[in-house]
Fold this sequence. Notes:
alpha+beta, 5-stranded antiparallel beta sheet, 17% helix
Amino acid sequence: MVGAALVALTMTSCGAALVGVIYEGDTQPVAVTSNVLGKKVGTAKCASVLGIAAYGNAGISEAAKNGNITKISHIDRKTFNVLGVYTEYEYFVYGE
């Protein structure tokens, strides 16, 4: 049963969300607009410990505010996860 689950996880396409059973560290696109690529970047982060306690503000509006951005061109999300014990999401908002 566990072997079948591992095979299923490894055969998923890149179009699906990445999941690392032991470790995950990746950056993926979230959204894009028709606005011109900006020179500014703002970030916002949240984290979770054991899925029990979560903290932070990873809102897109928070990231835009942190980068002094009023016109968003695109958004990326960086994920860091170790054994589900500690998980962190950081959003990067680009624009002007």
